[in-house]
Amino acid sequence: MAFRVNKCFHAVGNGTLFSGQIQNIQNSEVFNWLYDCGSTSLKTIGNILTNLPNWFQSHNTIDMLVISHFDNDHVNGLEILLKNFYVKKLVLPFTEWPQSIREISILGKKGITPSIALFQLNPAKWLQLNGFENRINEIVLVKGGENPNSDILESDNNLVDNPDLPIDSTTSVFFEFDTPVQKSTIKLLKINHFQSFKDSSGSFEFMFYNAEKSFSELGLIYEVGGKRFAKKSRQELSIVKADIEKTIISLGLDQHITNLPKDWRKKLKHCYEKHFGKTGEAKNNISLCMYAAPLDLNLQKSRYATLLTGDINLSSNVIDDMEAHLGINRWDSLGIVQVPHHGSQHSWTVGNTARFMPATFVQCATPTKLHPHSKVVTDLASYGARVRVANRQLPVAYSFLY
């Protein structure tokens, strides 16, 4: 054994901040990664991010930061994080720009702040406004969907060297404003979630799972003659995008995020619905999940793998798809499983516990009436599951050698 792994669900309560580090014992090299960086308490997430463990503070570089989705309690610590660390690779779920507009305009103040809204619409512009232009090296967008090439499953793909799908102006997740992400200093890649990759030592594997459906699958976009159109307005998507971008600029969301009109969400929602219709038809299951474990298949019985789930809705169908996506060897190695959405009943189906047993479950929540929900707690207890809770007082930390 030549590597030590330290992992921690930090004490942020309702939110998620998971840190991991792989230490090469022989040469002292490290690989640092984070999954999400937010909490419902800004004070809590701020204190923890500025006082990460010594084994993180001794290296001011995050090799990989994964954001599962853009709800405040999963990403509102990003600004504090970038003040203290340089991020080599920022991994985000591939989210079509109409879906981003829906999230920003519909979810209200509890969903996405103006600052995070701008970050989601154009991270290069957000970095520029906050003075962080040189704090992120590259952004990797992870797209779900069917496996485009079965050979990928057996390859040694690396996120940097093997981008899967090209970025183009029509399907881009971002708005341009006056700072196009594609023309910024940030390297921009898009991959399919079947592409796993390794840490710098080549001994540890990360694999993502994205259950998000496209707007075409949701019935809000249709195609004619190779061109795509919005369902309600029947205008070509390039025209729709230009109209929405004009609205964003008129509101000042691309520049003056601290001095927006009080009804800015309402105006953005109106523009969205003018083209795509009422929002109930656009519900989606957005949360980039991540599997992390040593690569050596001989270690499967040790159950060293961690599954991070964000706020994904773990319906039976999603679990079936996720299990098939990861494959039997990875699935049987799961030792730690994050209960999604802080134990919300809307992200958990009764009987889920049995699908992951004998793994240990981690609840990222400071107990409230609904988080974790009694139905989720009961389901976990009915199977005798081992459950640990990362609340605002106590983290859940563990380490191992391989």
TrEMBL record:
PANTHER family: DNA INTERNALIZATION/COMPETENCE PROTEIN COMEC/REC2, RECOMBINATION PROTEIN 2. This is Metallo-beta-lactamase domain-containing protein.
